[in-house]
Amino acid sequence: MEQLYQQVILDHSRQRSGEGELQAPDGESFQVNPTCGDECTVQVTLAEGAIDSLAWTGKGCSISQASLSLMYEMVHGQPVAEAEQLGETFRELIHNRGQELDEEKMDLLDDLGAFTGVGRYSARVKCALLGWMALRGALAQAQPTQA
Amino acid sequence: MTDLLNLAGDFPLLDRTVRGGKPLVYLDTGATSQKPAAVLEAERAFNSRHNAAVHRGAHQIAEEATEAYEGARAGVAQFVGADFGEIIWTKNATEGLNLVAYSFLNATLGRGGAEAERFRLNAGDEIVVTELEHHANLVPWQELAAKTGAVLRWIPVTPDGRLDLEQLDVISERTRVVAFTHASNVTGAITDTAPIVARAQEVGAYTVLDACQSAAHLPVNFAELGVDFAAFSGHKMLAPTGVGVLYGRRELLEAMPPVLTGGSMVEIVTMESTTFMPPPQRFEAGTQMVAQTVGMHAAVDYLTGIGMDKLAAHEDQLAGELLAGIAEVPGVRVLGPSSTQDRLAVVAFDVPGVHPHDVGQVLDDQGIAVRVGHHCAQPVHRAFGVHASTRASAGVYTSSSDIQAFIAGLHQVVKFFG
């Protein structure tokens, strides 16, 4: 159990970063996990190709809440491209059946590496990725379509 | 505590281990039951010795298959106090409930001729459901209302998770259908059906009972209950998946238009039009799940062999142990009645500050299988002010030692996340 519920995850599920709402988001996305009804909304504003501000609201299990909290800490203020790359790498980790990725990717993931064990439990994959799906949706909405 | 029944040995799956060698404690019967060897063997024997298309072909095996299929119908009819022709095979209870709603829609569209006019819904008519329903007995009625212009109303739930029978004036002269559960899959509350049926009959509304949780755990007799329709699923009562039953009073089924159409349910087909067979065949289009009906026959024989009264007493004892054990875990709130009076051994609960997924994960790590989530009943969770819960549900094979293991596991949960 301790392998799944790493201290980082338990800490972030209790002391959550980035919860709140933005006045005028450039993009936002609402996502729901139909198996349990867990939901979250992620809002972003962009400036000069970077995530200027990010806020989220949601209700869910410790895995989903900790994932949102860590996501906030790692992507706000970061260039959009880097945030998207981090999201892709995190998705890869969660779909890797509990195995770590290569060293370079684990370095990139930093504290998100605590979620490695989640991949062993297929029922929890969606919990870990819910917030990141919302981030992807919010970023897509915030960026003008490139013709 | 001594168990009234000791039947786990009849269920091959219960012998297995999970999560690195831990013995399985299966407390998710409310979602689906395990199957006794007798059911598995009946299905295997049918497929290996008697499989053929039913109601066609003059060869010996076709006759054997037809006898097995119709024999299963007779067996299930007897089990729930119905006549042979009042039992329609469906894929599951969801399909059975939808069948009634869609047949009424077809009647509203003018199908079924003059005798089906009684099922027509008009703008301003009302359909009454309850806040306690599984989505399967709510969404089809929302859809029917949306398509016909009928208005959906509902009986609310009390703080202890029962239907509020003080609010039966929701059923009015405008009510055409009253759809309600016989026993809640969340709160475990068993419905006092008599006043609801009486009120519906008083205003001439059809009654539709969701008997999914009751048929597997209580003696059930639809004729005595006086309901017009009832649906239940095989897989929740020791039978295979893919088979369920819609019960309908014969007089109503005879007047109702079909829903699925095609082979096996027709008399004369010309290029222009078709006449339909009488019920139950009218509602059983296409090749049916014959082996599963044979499995369901074996399941009701198995339950009858135990005795539904004895089974209900066994599960009543388990419900008491569940409620007493949960009451000793600090902070945990049961979503449903706190006594075993008119209650199944289906207990959903909230551990404040700990999400049900996390509760279930820690229990699973100890080999204990429970359900987490909204259990396909979001409105009743909303009524309790939560959006999901954890649920332990017992069955014929559950023992006191299973309950003890679960309670010990729940203490672990609180310790882990405390």
TrEMBL record, chain A:
<feature type="domain" description="NIF system FeS cluster assembly NifU N-terminal">
    <location>
        <begin position="5"/>
        <end position="127"/>
    </location>
</feature>
<protein>
    <submittedName>
        <fullName>SUF system NifU family Fe-S cluster assembly protein</fullName>
    </submittedName>
</protein>
<dbReference type="GO" id="GO:0016226">
    <property type="term" value="P:iron-sulfur cluster assembly"/>
</dbReference>
<dbReference type="GO" id="GO:0005506">
    <property type="term" value="F:iron ion binding"/>
</dbReference>
<dbReference type="InterPro" id="IPR002871">
    <property type="entry name" value="NIF_FeS_clus_asmbl_NifU_N"/>
</dbReference>
<dbReference type="Pfam" id="PF01592">
    <property type="entry name" value="NifU_N"/>
</dbReference>
<dbReference type="GO" id="GO:0051536">
    <property type="term" value="F:iron-sulfur cluster binding"/>
</dbReference>
